[in-house]
Amino acid sequence: MKDLVVIGAGAAGYFATAQVLSMKPKAHVLLLEKTGKVLSKVKISGGGRCNVTHNCLDPEKLILNYPRGNPWLNEVFNQFSVKDSLVWFGQRGVKIVAEADGRMFPESNISQTIIDALQSSAIGANFSFQLHSGVTRIVPLKSGFEIWLNGEEKIIAKHVLVSSGGSPSGNGISFLKEFNFETVPPVPSLFTFNVRKHTWSDLMGLSVPAAKVRLEETDLSFTGPLLVTHWGFSGPAILKLSAFAARILHDKNYKYRFSIDWLPEMDEKLVLEKLLQFQLENPKKKPDQSQIFPIPKRLWEQICKASGLSANFNWAEAGKKKLASAVQELKKSVFEAEGKTTYKEEFVTSGGIDLQEVNSRTCESIRFAGLFFAGEVLDVDGITGGFNFQAAWSTAFVAASQISKSI
Predict the structure, then answer these.
(1) Which helix (H) or strand (E) holds 304?
(2) N or C terminus of the chain: which is more exposed, having fewer CB within 10 Å?
(3) Helices (H), ranges, 122-265
(4) 311 and 180: one domain?
């Protein structure tokens, strides 16, 4: 009998394995992965740099970055916080550094550094792992569990940790059907907004450091960097909004309206005052050749085009209606979206095992002793910026600590 079988060799699964073996080096641990690769999301995260966590050290503030999981995560983060993650990797020779926006990466700027730290920590006299080993069924026994691999091989384990990641189709946790767990149907989170008849596509590649994006007919909005793409809009502001609105947008079949405020630090009155002042002082200048606001020149030219401030006349000829239209475009450019494009490096799934099924103090099933969960298989997901990896490290640590106590 195995002391522990870990299902899924991603961030949470590998971290939990490493933690159990650091506490119980002689434990019989088997790590299973249904594909031929391990830690694949760690490899590509952050453009190959691995966004390990976020420089948000207060657990109460940290949980605000999770559309699903707050406040369940509060107890988890109080046991293993961002600070603890930094210490854990630091003890394994990996220094984690913060960037200006709070994202944290290994000092090497190479994701392989994190992979090496995890794999070198998963060492034990009785540790083994198997690739191409998909779990098809788990059966609870009086003491332990019976795990079926690929419909043929059978393994008996005292403890099982499910860290199989998100499952967009919902089929990824079908092997748990014997348990009749309450689950939340999975939907995509963290995606870009696709815009049909995208008249702004000429601005492809243009970015602004701060724009406020609002989902129409809701109270949801986020301010942050924004990027114009050939299919629509992306960047942290869009991705954060997509995360908090994941279920709303799914219910709308990804057909919705959103607006962009290009000058979030100015109200409409101030914007109009600046336009009128510039008009008064520069009556002979061309509107689209004027530099009035701290936005890229190409963006201002598009605003002028959309509001009718044509290059064929000067400021003295711009009437009240065109000025009001310019204010509208600057403060509330409205777009109709249809569809989404998954942001591959940060893609996560909203949904999974209902948190009411899992004890937040131990990450153990409330109804089945010895069965644990960690990572994205839970109905927990964060916004972009390292938050999803932090949830993986923390839930994995909590589960591993509890498992180690009973081995």
Answers:
(1) helix 297-307
(2) N
(3) 236-244, 246-251
(4) no
**Whether residue 296 is found in the same domain as residue 381:** no
Domain with 302, as residue range(s), is 191-342
The token duo for 108 is 């090497």
Sequence-distant (6+) residues with CB within 8 A of 97 are 104, 105, 106, 107
Residues 196, 277: one domain?
yes
Can you state the percent helix, strand and coil of the chain, rounding each to 5? 35, 25, 35
| Other Cβ atoms closer than 10 A to 151 | 9
Q: Could you give the strand order of the β-sheet that contains 103-106, starting from the edge strand earlier in sequence?
A: 53-54, 103-106, 96-98
Q: Which amino acid is at 17?
A: T
pLDDT digits (tens, 9 = 90+) for 29-78: 999 999 999 999 999 998 999 999 999 999 999 999 999 998 999 999 99
Whether 111 and 42 have beta carbons less than 8 Å apart is answered as yes
Entry pTM: 0.91
Integer Cα distance of 170 and 250 in angstroms = 15
Q: Which of 342, 367, 388 is at the close of a domain?
A: 342
Separation CA 256–CA 250 (nearest Å): 10
Band of residue 313 on the pLDDT scale cut at 50, 70, 90: confident
